[in-house]
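Entry 14. Ran structure prediction on the chain below.
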Amino acid sequence: MSSTALDAELRVERSGQVVTITFNRPHARNAMTWNMYDGLERACEDIDADDGIRVAVLRGAGGKAFVAGTDITQFTEFETAEDGLAYEQRIGRVVQRLETVRVPTIARVDGYAVGGGLSLAAACDLRICTPEAKFGLPIARTLGNCVSIATCARLVALIGSARALQLVYTAELISAEQAGATGLVTELVPADQIEARVEALAAQIAGHAPLTMSATKQMVHRLADHDLPDAEDLIAACYGSADFHEGVRAFVDKQKPTWTGR
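Output, structure tokens:
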């Protein structure tokens, strides 16, 4: 197995025709830093440039989380609505790059996939999960921000509009079993079997005709591809609000935020 270290927080390892990308901040439930997002985008570029790669697997280190969102401490740098707009555009670009990477992608989810982690898992083609996996978008309870319209569209396509609204409105995490009922989870595997199962699935896919894989993936994306309406006014209203700054402060200070609607 060869290994390329884009960053200590993001490991990229290749074994034959399969690349494994590991989000490597287990002490922070693999919450994403700016460097990790940049590294993921570069990894996708490297995969597309190498015809010998047939499958990409994404996973979190430590067994407790896939990705528990973006590292919230980075939001303390935000001062204006424009900071929020730039963030959503930046993350949207990375998630779309993952979604459109040339090869089939498998998200191995054992533990939390919430916020930005849910977005990354949803952008993968398949999601293989343990019963301990948890999914959610708890922003109404934590930060008072909102996600991009592309993220909304992706979730609606996967689980339907009512389920997507329920996920945000309740700010609750759902179990792997519940997520399976919505169609979000592709396959549920016991924790002690998931490594072997993902390896076997990746090998199976890698052995199939790559042009068939690529054509089918692109067809599915073209079916879902449509011009989305602009939603920057809604994003700016959330990120530019007093509530957002209160949410970040309260999260960092481990307190419950006081929402004012302003």
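The two ends are 53 Å apart (CA to CA). Will compare against last week's run tomorrow.
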